[in-house]
């Protein structure tokens, strides 16, 4: 898929105010500091599209970007880590879950996971919750350039092994690096295939 245009459309804190164009939406979510903004900018070929922040967990709203006037890339608030009050955390959780469970246009949710880390309980619980609710999702391993190839492979295989304890069939997964654009083509081709199947 060639990205000809990528534009910011709207940020909001209410699912009911998301765009009403009925175009497919591909949402991206992950723990704070997983490299979500950098990945979105790399995919969209626009370094300034999603705002990268020195303070992890800055995305507190649902951000819609329209790609090629054909589909939406949706940047969801992250979960975990960021220093928030209990009420803020609950508000964000409600926002995230109401989008994921109620947004009919959401075609696939991509869960971002830091490829350098051991499987994290918070990610595994979130992935399990997606499964319980029948949400179509894929996993994106980020920061692949930060480890030696052998370490990267062993980290990912131990992650997949951990997932197999819960899942009979593994979700699609992608290995990416925003720095050297690894995985960009595979991910965009996957989105393109789904879009074609929706028109078919």
Mean pLDDT, nearest integer? Answer: 91
Order of helix and strand elements from N to C terminus: EEHEEHEHEHEH
If classified by CATH, what would the architecture be? 3-Layer(aba) Sandwich
Q: Helix amount, in percent? A: 25-40%
How many domains would you count in the coordinates? Answer: 1
- Separate helix tally: 5
Low-confidence parts, pLDDT < 50 over ≥5 residues? none
Which fold does the CATH topology refer to? Rossmann fold
Distance between the termini: 17 Å
Structural class: alpha/beta
**E-strand count:** 7
Fraction of residues in β-strands: 15-25%
CATH superfamily: P-loop containing nucleotide triphosphate hydrolases
Oligomer: single chain
Summarize this structure as a short list of keywords or feature phrases:
200 residues, alpha/beta, Rossmann fold, 7-stranded mixed sheet, 7 strands
């Amino acid at each position: 898929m060639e990205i000809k245009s990528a534009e910011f459309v709207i940020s909001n804190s209410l699912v009911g105010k998301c765009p009403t164009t009925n175009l497919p939406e591909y949402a991206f979510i992950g723990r704070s500091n997983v490299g979500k903004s950098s990945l979105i900018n790399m995919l969209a070929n626009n370094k300034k599209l999603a705002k990268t922040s020195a303070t992890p967990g800055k995305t507190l709203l649902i951000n819609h970007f329209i790609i090629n006037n054909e589909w939406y890339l949706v940047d969801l608030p992250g979960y975990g880590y960021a220093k928030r009050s209990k009420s803020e955390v609950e508000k964000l959780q409600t926002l995230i879950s109401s989008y994921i469970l109620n947004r009919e246009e959401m075609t696939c949710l991509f869960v971002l996971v830091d490829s350098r880390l051991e499987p994290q309980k918070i990610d595994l619980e979130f992935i399990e919750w997606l499964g319980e609710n029948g949400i179509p999702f894929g996993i994106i391993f980020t920061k692949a350039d930060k480890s030696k190839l052998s370490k990267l492979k062993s980290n990912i295989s131990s992650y997949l092994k951990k997932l197999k304890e819960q899942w009979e069939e593994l979700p699609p997964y992608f290995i990416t690096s925003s720095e050297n654009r690894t995985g960009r083509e595979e991910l965009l081709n996957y989105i393109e295939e789904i879009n074609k199947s929706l028109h078919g």
